[in-house]
Amino acid sequence: MLQLIWLIPLLPLVGVVINGLFGRRMSRTTVGWLACLVVLCSFLISAGAVWQLAQLPEDARHHAVEVASWMPLGDLEGATDNQALSNVEISWGFALDPLSAVLLLVVTGVGLLIHIYATGYMAHEEDLSRFFVYMNLFMAMMCTLVLGDNLLVMFVGWEGVGLCSYLLIGFFYDRPFDERTGLSCADAGRKAFIVNRIGDFAFLIGMLYLITEFGTLNYLKLSAAFEQAHGIGWMMSAVGILLFIGACGKSAQIPLFVWLPDAMAGPTPVSALIHAATMVTAGVYMVCRMSPLYAHAPDALAVVGMVGAATALFAATMGITATDIKKVLAYSTVSQLGFMFAAAGVGAYTAAMFHLMTHAFFKALLFLGAGSVITALHHVQDIRQMGGLRAKMPRTATTFIIATLAISGIVPFAGFFSKDEILWGAWSSGNKAIWAVLAVAAFFTAFYMMRLTYLVFFGKFRGGDEKFSHVHESPNLMTVPLMILAVLSAVGGLVGIPAAFSVIGLGDANLFHHWLAPAITPAGGGHGGGGHGAEAAHSLGAEWALMTAALAIALFAFWLALRVYKREGTAERMATRFKPIYTTLRNLYWVDELYDALLLRPFYALCRVFTAFDKWVVDGVVNAVGVTAELTGQIVKLFQTGLVRNYALVFLLGVVAVLYYLITI
Amino acid sequence: MTVGPQHFLILSAVLFTLGVAGVLWRRGAIRLLMSIELMLNAGNLAFITFARQFDQAEGQVYVFFIITLAAAEAAVGLAIVIAFFRLRDSSDVDELNLLKW
User: Fold this and answer.
1) Is B35 helix (H, G, I), strand (E, B) or coil?
2) Which of A102, A386, A609, B85 pairs with A304 at a CA distance of 20 to 30 A?
3) ipTM beyond cut 0.95
4) Which residues on A lie below 8 Å from B24 (Cβ)?
5) All domains in chain B, ordered by first residue
6) In the A/B pair of chains, how many CB contacts fall below 8 A?
């Protein structure tokens, strides 16, 4: 199986080709199941390969397959002084190691569930084959991103998933999306693509820096090269920040987060797969992947941590006032991604990857649950039109509540363990400020999630009795993936039980930490990642205290949310009372407007200048050439009478003139 | 008065001028062809004169070439005239004015 990892990105492409060429002539069922089948095959190969990887001894858990040579660059400038720069070559290679294994299983596993769900969700939509072509293409690109053994192959996948994201956000390209901004779904797709472009540009520059300095983009070779690199700390920091800007674009961090809320224009399975579980976490994966770089660039790592923590808090507050069920979840995703970056920023890479995994479970579940609700209500997304759906949709409601408990960090659901590990990582690394910001963000997370759950599933239905009678539970095709994800959200955290639990007889049961340790270079430099356990041993008390505090914060937020939203009118009274805060949050801190005023308007003005130049100067010159030629022709054509005798006369005059010249010379 | 080369040359010039005048002022296609023929023969006369004067055979050879060429030209020219006549029921070259913008 390990030899076959190159098949994992390739198999979904088979689905792309078949559905793309013949999809319109095949039945809708065949299209859907074919798309699921190829993802299933990828998942099985992934699972087999990871299982084989786990059999290997810990130090040997790295399997690379070079598929083809790609870019033989030859000698770079400075090759005579530096051996590494001679005969540089970038190959098309895939590699499986503990780090990529985690994301690979998440991508193919959650991806498979979402594909199955989508066959139910999209059952009545037009253009089913186009949808599944994009979805399968996304899976192929995401697997390329995860499995690439060098940054450039990762970048291919990185751009590929960006493309699929754009295509899928704009899937309903002719439908309007946002009344406030007047965007259509196609506009939302473009916005996502353009904002990502900014990040990708920085990513590209970072890669070019690396290749001119070290002559390779292969992770292992880079890692070895960083060890010997001295005196270029500023370069490392620059590259670290450039790569992080790329991650900011892809993973929707400040200041490039604005595209993700609008990405909700896509079909809900897309939001679950791309904009919650997999693609947006690619940035986190990349930062963890480049941990050897960040070990030598503490400044860049500090930036990662601060931006992550700020985003976590900032986005969480925006989730409180949003009224679109998917937008609440979108802000939540931005915020949770902020948690992951904050974790990576304080050096707790395993915590970041752990949260990435649990987040993929519960956030995919939340989105799929939201999709189930939206279908049941015939495309109503406004939570003010919902309520009391628990009675009609027991499966959706139960799974949604499990996901809410998981994301809010209630013991023993998955989010509790991963969030606790992040908070503990922030605290134990001495970044108390980041810990505090994250704790506040965790409070808001629990608050908006309880608000969402309560407004959707509890209380009284606010969309009219007639509509309520039509609400029904979604088909099994949709609820079974929900239930599987609910189980994963409930028990998924148990693979990473923190060391503090050893006092109740579990031993050091943090399997996840041990699994990832060989693939991660800790932030302090040096090798081996066992710091967590040793450190924890003499601060068990602190860890327990933090855990209890986090739990108390979440429960307090739950209680507060229930108090505010249980009785009609309380929320409105709060909104009037804190009107400035409410308006600010409701308008999302006017970030879109700010970008509009600071970037877009000057940009458009510049565009108008260039348009005028193009229209009057460039086009003017070209047109002048044409007009001159035509005018000349208009004049010259007068000599062309068509009368043979006129021509003969001119001919004669010509002969006379020539003769005269020859004679007088 | 003896007849010298200059007389032949003057005759040749007169014939050529008549040919040019015919081409420029006459409208009938047949006359036009005849005028061209006249100019060619003026040329022939000049060639013969010079061949005789300088006692060289090349001039006479050229004349044969020109006679052959004139025959071919007359054949093509008459074919055009016939085609034109079928099209327009006329042989007036001023009506043959389509070859312009």
Assistant:
1) helix
2) A102
3) no
4) 645, 648-649, 652
5) 5-95 (1.10.287.3510)
6) 28
